[in-house]
Write a structure and sequence with these properties.
mainly beta, Thiol Ester Dehydrase, Chain A, six-stranded antiparallel β-sheet, 5 helices
């Protein structure tokens, strides 16, 4: 793979990927309901005759489904073909950014323009070597800009597989600016719960803003460590080399009222039961990896 391809990739910056494309469906209540049920979001603004769509659904109204969009320009396909031809045949979505300018309501008809905003120089990642491609989509209703969605992917050539002795390590948590404080707490043997600086609602997992009042201010409270098994599943398949099934994965309801996914320890997997009282402890599952788990009260 040669760097000679980069000037050709760079030439696609600024080219349109879609012009005045039309969303396949108008903003509608069934899709809003399905989204809210999947996200567990019960905010009243998304219900009733004056409902608005959750802002995070912005991209959903532009998706082409399995059949895709017929009004997409050739530039994006040409760019992908050029990357494939240069050996960057794998793809992974890396991140997205959204900006919301006005609410969307049932009945709104969506149009959107998409542009290839940037193609990075060749980068080397743990996945492999390739180029980051960022696409910007401007979403409109009746000609007025409603929001902007930036979507970034990595087109890459997979790195050589690691030696087998390193493949059986547990996956490491993805730590970013929104959850770094939680993992700092784990390192100090503290289970920290976010508390909204506006409405004071506790929330878990960690989020950059409050689902209830929208405030981006927050502080933390330390969980006392008591909880109960709210629900659980027993994992048999698929088999991951770093894990030894069967094992129980539980949804723990903490005494503070929030819930988190973790493992139950101290009893066999087939003895875990809903309503079982548990207590927090921190367990070193591998060198350099410590996790919060929950031990059945009275065991161990």
């Amino acid at each position: 793979m040669s760097e000679d391809v980069y000037p050709r990739l760079k030439a696609y910056e600024g080219q349109a990927a879609a012009v005045a494309a039309v969303g396949k469906d108008p903003v509608n209540e069934p899709m809003i309901r399905h989204w809210c049920e999947a996200m567990g979001d019960t905010h009243p603004a998304y219900q009733g005759p004056d409902a608005v769509a959750p802002p995070t659904m912005l991209q959903a109204w532009t998706m082409g489904g399995l059949s895709g969009h017929t009004d997409r320009s050739a530039a994006y396909d040409e760019l992908f073909a050029l990357l494939d031809g240069a050996g960057y045949t794998s793809v992974v979505a890396t991140d997205c950014e959204q900006e919301y300018l006005r609410p969307l309501r049932p009945g709104d008809r969506i149009t959107f323009d998409a542009v290839i905003e940037s193609v990075s120089e060749r980068k080397t990642t743990k996945l492999g070597t390739g180029h980051f491609v960022t696409t910007r989509m401007d979403v409109r209703v009746a000609g007025r800009l409603a929001g902007t969605h930036r979507f970034r992917i990595l087109k890459y050539a997979p790195a050589a597989r690691k030696p087998k002795e390193t493949e059986h390590r547990r996956p490491r948590p993805v730590i970013n600016r929104d959850n770094a404080g939680f993992w700092d707490g784990v390192a100090a043997h503290k289970l920290l719960i976010q508390r909204c600086g506006g409405c004071r609602t506790l929330r878990f997992p960690w989020l950059p803003g409050c689902n209830g009042c929208g405030s981006q201010k927050w502080d933390t409270v330390e969980a006392g460590g008591e909880g109960t098994v709210y629900s659980y599943v027993v994992m048999h398949h698929p088999r991951f080399p770093a894990f030894a099934p069967p094992y129980a994965v539980a949804l723990i309801e903490l005494a503070e009222g929030v819930r988190m996914v973790s493992n139950v320890v101290g009893v066999p997997y087939d003895k875990v039961r809903i309503g079982m009282p548990v207590r927090l402890e921190f367990q070193c599952v591998e060198p350099g990896l410590e996790l919060p788990v929950f031990r059945v009260e009275g065991e161990g």
